[in-house]
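Q: What changes when fe (ii) ion is included in the input?
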Amino acid sequence: MSLDSIRGERGLFTDRATTSYTLPSRYYTDDDIHQRELRNIFQKSWAYVGHVTDLEERGSYFVDDVAGQPILVIKGKDDGIRAFFNVCQHRGHELLCGRGKVRAGITCPYHGWTYGLDGALLAARLTNKLPGFDKAAFSLSELPLAITAGLIFVNLDRSAAPFEEEAENFGESIQKHLPNIPEFIARYRFTFDIAANWKVVVDNFSEGYHIPVAHPELSTLYSHRGEPGTIGRRYAFYHNTARPGYKGFETHPGEPYLSWTFWPNLCMLSLPGSKNLIVLRMSPNGSVRCQERVDIYSAAGPLEPNVDKIKHLFADVFNKEDIAIVESVQRGVSSLGYDQSRYVADEAESWFSETALHRFHRQVLEVVADGTGKG
Ligand code: FES
Ligand SMILES: [Fe+2]
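A: The predicted holo structure follows.
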């Protein structure tokens, strides 16, 4: 379908950020569009679920919810990391909860079917004499999994495009600046239940235009030169630098301030002051709510003092400011008083431009456009 059919009250969404009108507001509220997003985006995209250091030993596991689907990620006896739907193949009970370690196998708490760490059904009580029952036909359902820069991604679609094709050199862009990222450990994890469509939150992360206005403290942490980003097929990477004299904690001139977005709902930051990676994943919870998962990673070993201050700056200052912003925007885009605007985009694609926002919307429309031409 041509994107030229995407029309709002003011005009057309077009290919060029500097002349296009923005995503019409129905894309932030409509339940049918949300269902298409679940099917065409979230059930086909690579989703961040954790880090290899979350699974230190054989049998270590964690469970996750990927856009409403229960997932289990576990380290096998061969040290391989695998992902399965966290669903027993007998009557569908969920198998594991939270994080932890199993010994020999995964035993369902309902009737006790037991699976190996590789997903094979090992034992199913009272099935010995069941005519034609073949345990091999009831293995756990395995999902494609990829690891880059120590980060684990899964895909709900077994015929998904390979991760390397989608991610290109996304992992290299992380490891170039954080060479020890595969050994980083999660220091803090939070989840925030946000009254906004998931795209409003990703939109907010996709542009630095708002930062000097909406984040007065954060904006003193780094230089506002607004250098062009590195744009991949499914990710964007921006490299800014620390500004001398930040009051919150010690930084060094030229220290990097890095940010990434990775299709569709992953946003990451590495702030100056220590080696750290703040990972945010926005999962839809209906059309007008989402859950923001945050994992803050830092180098293994004793905690560098600035990491705690960076956590404070993130959790108590600018993420709080961002949540208030996105919830306000959701009320606004849901109102009768707003439909569309223009992207404040520059051709150089600087961090302060809304070009990345336009690119994100283009990718959304490519797979969920309603084509109604509705004004
Ligand atoms: S549902 Fe798992 S053993 Fe019955
Ligand atoms: Fe922000």
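Observations recorded in class: The chain has two domains: 50-159, 164-365.
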